[in-house]
Amino acid sequence: MPVVHLRPNDTYARIDPNLYGHFAEHLGTCIYEGLWVGEDSAIPNTQGIRNDVLDALRRLKPPVIRWPGGCFADTYHWADGVGPRATRPRRVNVWWGQAIDDNAFGTHEFLTLCRLLGANFTGDSSRARLRRAHGSEAPFNVTYWGVGNENWGCGGQLDPEDYAVEYRRFSTYLHEFSGHPLYLIACGPSGNNPDWSRRFLGKTVGRCRVHGFAAHYYCGTVGTATQYDDAGFLTLIWRALVQMELLIVQQRATLDSFDPERRIGLIVDEWGTWHPVEEGHPGSGLWQQNTMRDALVAAGTLDIFNRHADEVVMGNIAQMVNVLQAMCLTDGERMLCTPTYHVYAMYAAHQGARAVPVSFECEKLSFVSDDRKPHQIDAVAGSASVRGKELTMTVTHHDPQHAAELTLRLHGAAAAGAEASVLAGADIRSHNTFEAPDAVRPQPLAAHVEGGAVTLLLPPASVACVRVALA
Predict the structure, then answer these.
(1) DSSP string, 303-318
(2) Residue 303 CA to its chain's centroid (Å)
(3) 25, 150, 245, 311: which one is catalytic?
(4) What is the mean pLDDT of residues 416-420?
(5) Is 137 a catalytic residue?
(6) What is the average pLDDT value for the chain, to the nearest integer?
(7) Is the pTM higher than 0.85?
(8) Domain assignments of the chain as residue spans, ordered by start
(9) Which of 33, 245, 270, 311 is catalytic?
(10) Under a CB-based contact definition with an 8 Å cutoff, are residues 329 and 281 in contact?
(11) What is the rounded end-to-end Cα distance, in angstroms, of the chain?
């Protein structure tokens, strides 16, 4: 029987809400059809942004949205997406399918969507007049700026030293106006590559502003989005969690060697699963179904971010709608929330809370991965946080076949009451469809309190959230 040990009085870091960030790129139907339908659409919308997706995303309270890319950012100019839509230029999206992008959803529409990004000047410049003419009297106060994207690849095929030169140049001219601070984010490595990071940091730290350093990691796939066996299920979870935790530990250690005071924040601004293109969807769209396997990858990754709340400050899952590990899928007037969406909703209580130390006693699950090598993964994992007198514990149960009774033992505190919810499907391939949009959704889970401890029965391949009232 697995046991988790928690010490609610020994908090060690605030869980930055930005760890629960999102990513929206002009790719496939993420923007057009996913977020944007236009003001004249029969689909209910607010200023052209579809209401069903807006309402769903509001429930997640996304703290930050990364836009417009991704690789799309390398050829996008912010001025293309402001002013009357009828006069905006039509550009070829060279990154994703050579589609024509009419810039109907541009800089101004994105800022309308998230209220987080935008112009930085309150005075009477020409650009400020343009912003007012388009309906926004107040400046948008952009805070987070990515200075380049995947510069080791689509962002220029640069060596880290060459990118450092470009970063120093562009960061110099990202000026702060009206006292609003800018947070400049440098492109980090593809995956976990400490050598790339050292070579870049050695040419920038102390010579220019670097506030954040962002790595990308996709765990890929095993099989397809919906077709995999138990070994494929466990392999992808193992690949996602083991490699992500290693990335955070090693990249933070590399940053610490240049920045021991941790003024530079570690960011993972693209992450998630990446399955083969689904039949019937365009090859450039990266549309993929989202199953319980994706849910466990998402939950386990967020648990890693929570446990390392003193080492990582932002994470952006790819992507919001219709692309890769999406929160929502749309089909004309229809919309559904994916299992990954429900994970974010269940985990929302962690945002801004204090991280609590956790340790697990559990069995190991053994399997042979797609590289034909034997591996093991803990049967259960999770994270915890506390806010006032409430403890939130989230846990992933990786066993694809068997239920498990989990006990939460509190040290230095006791449970006065508890309630729980669980996300699970009929099997490990369960997912939501437009015909059955609620096949996978959170359900109440019995949580028993006795002797100050909490016990609950975890279904196979499940994600649970337990809210504990502390005595």
Answers:
(1) HHHHHTTTT--EEEEE
(2) 12
(3) 150
(4) 96
(5) no
(6) 92
(7) yes
(8) 16-352, 356-470
(9) 270
(10) no
(11) 25
